[in-house]
Specification:
The complex is a heterodimer. Chain A is of the alpha/beta class. Chain A has 8 helices and 9 strands. Chain A has a 6-stranded mixed sheet, with helices on both faces. In chain A, strand 6, helix 6 and strand 7 form a beta-alpha-beta unit. The chains are: A alpha/beta, B mainly alpha. The A-B interface holds A 14-16, 21-25, 27, 72, 75-79, 91, 93, 95-96, 98-100, 102, 104-105, 109, 112-113, 115-122 and B 11-12, 14-15, 17-19, 21-22, 25-26, 29-30, 94-101, 164, 167-171, 174, 253, 256-257.
Chain lengths: 246, 259
């Protein structure tokens, strides 16, 4: 069985000017006087893991540990400086408020827009439209501009589109933190459906209770390195011990 | 790299259509005058320029308004597309941090929606040509060629600006500063003939002169532009386009660290 995601000795380095130079004028002056110094910072170091199809994997770690960078590599928006990232299948990220939506367009127009961002054709979207509108629970609101929506409604719309496009690999970044209790319950239900359907899911969360309830495996990232990777029952307690430790 | 950032745009053509649709609806939906805005802006400009240049500074241009508009509209297509494009990677940063997209798709969509605006703004000009100008001529069938040349040139500049703006905030301001003299050094509201002979070489180095001349001649004079002007316009557009692609492709992997 071919793995869905393979990280082979992956390292990512941020190379940024020591002082944050954001204007060309400064850059021109500093590089003329050779005052430019760069700072190198390894956000991920020698990361190795593989994720098999249908696995739901929780990614835990403190803020700044490298979780988001990991997701960026899987989503192909960032390339590793060293090592290899292999992703076999279509990656669907769950977009949050603001990214990918336009507040002047109606709910339905946004569904088309979001669908095309995920690479789904308009014909395909037409086929799925009824299902998306139904799951979003927006009713007649789909014909209103998005600026009239509450933030919970936008979140529901995002979730509804992402879940209707038959993802291979689903990226969930702190996503269950939004929406009301009813929507959260519905989303959890949906995630369980995806697991049954064999979708590979990467789930980043600080809610360890949810991780324990949902995930087959856990990757614990700390200081850019994988500190633990394995069955949830084995790996998660190590992270918890670390958090509660001295 | 070139595949990821440029050729993939063809696979995302539905997104391209949606982005153009969004640009146009968002721009016009909430304004009372709607699509008429596209024509109001150049009309006001034209009125001002016509008054200034046909009564105060007189260059003795016959049908000044046609001479002016046929150049100015094309200049606007260029200056507005490139200005909008220069911020497009930054303003879509939140999205580009989450999901892979060929990043030039935003630049292509800006050009396409500006071309729609351009087409709308051409309507009053064509009406003027029929009423007070030489009327429609066969030579106007040539117009798509300079329009394509201008689009290629615009894309090239846009690629460079969009990439550079990711790293340096002030590229936008620097560019706006350069646009002004560039416009005045291009024969848009005066004829090339009034330029003193010693400055001519500078004016002849400006690719914009050739591109605009190729577009204006069929409308204003009713015949084809000089062949060498077409060649220079095409070659300079192609050169800028290639430089744009190389620069953008070289830097695209680093955008993520700055957006």
């Amino acid at each position: 069985m071919q793995s869905k995601i393979i990280f082979q000795d992956v390292s990512v380095r941020y190379r940024l000017p020591k002082e944050r130079i954001r204007t060309f004028k400064e850059f021109a002056i500093k590089s003329f006087w050779r005052q430019l110094e760069y700072e190198e910072f390894w956000v991920l170091r020698h990361i190795n893991f593989r994720i098999d199809p249908g696995t739901m994997i929780g990614i835990v770690g403190r803020n700044g540990a490298g979780k988001s960078t990991l997701l960026k590599l899987v989503a192909r928006v960032m390339k590793p400086v060293k090592g290899q990232v292999q992703v076999n299948g279509k990656v669907t990220p769950l977009l949050e408020l603001g990214a990918g939506f336009d507040f002047e367009l109606t709910g339905q127009e946004n569904i088309y827009l979001f669908g095309s961002i995920l690479g789904i054709s308009r014909r395909e979207m037409n086929r799925r439209m009824a299902k998306i509108i139904d799951f979003s629970g927006l009713g007649d609101f789909v014909d209103s501009p998005l600026r009239t929506f509450s933030s919970g409604m936008v979140a529901r719309l995002g979730f509804a589109v992402a879940t209707a496009v038959d993802p291979d690999i689903l990226l969930l970044d702190e996503i269950l933190a939004v929406g009301d209790a009813g929507f959260q319950k519905k989303s959890l239900e949906m995630i369980k459906n995806f697991r049954r359907a064999g979708v590979t899911i990467l789930f980043v969360s600080h809610d360890l209770r949810q991780i324990r309830a949902l995930c087959d495996q856990v990757i614990w990232v700390e200081g850019g390195e994988v500190r633990a990777w394995g069955e949830t029952a084995k790996a998660l307690p190590q992270y918890e011990a670390f958090l509660n430790g001295p | 790299m070139i595949k990821d950032e440029f050729l993939q745009v063809f696979h995302y053509k539905d997104l391209l259509i949606n982005l153009v649709f969004r640009d146009l609806t968002v721009r016009y939906k909430r304004s009372v005058l709607g699509f008429a805005w596209t024509m109001v802006h150049p009309l006001i400009n034209t009125a001002v320029f016509t008054v200034v240049f046909s009564t105060i500074f007189r260059f003795g241009i016959k049908d000044f308004i046609i001479y002016f508009l046929s150049g100015y509209q094309l200049w606007l297509l260029f200056s507005q597309s490139t200005t909008l494009s220069s911020r497009c990677i930054i303003s879509n940063g939140q999205l580009l941090r989450k999901v892979y997209l060929p990043k030039t798709i935003f630049i292509f969509s800006i050009l396409l929606s500006e071309l729609v605006n351009f087409a709308l703004a051409m309507l009053p000009l064509l009406a003027l040509v029929m009423i007070i100008g030489n009327g429609l001529s066969l030579a106007m069938l040539f117009l798509p060629i300079p329009l394509i040349i201008m689009s290629v040139f615009t894309l090239g500049i846009s690629f460079i600006l969009a990439a550079a703006t990711v790293f340096f905030n002030d590229i936008m301001d620097i560019y706006q500063l350069l646009l002004m003299p560039w416009m005045y050094l291009t024969p848009i509201f005066y004829p090339l003939e009034i330029v003193p002979a010693k400055f001519l070489p500078i004016f002849m180095l400006n690719p914009m002169y050739y591109i605009i001349d190729c577009f204006r001649t069929p409308i204003y004079l009713g015949h084809l532009p000089p062949f060498m002007h077409v060649v220079w316009a095409g070659l300079s557009a192609l050169a800028i386009f290639i430089v744009g692609i190389v620069v953008f492709a070289k830097w695209a992997d680093d955008f993520i660290y700055y957006i």
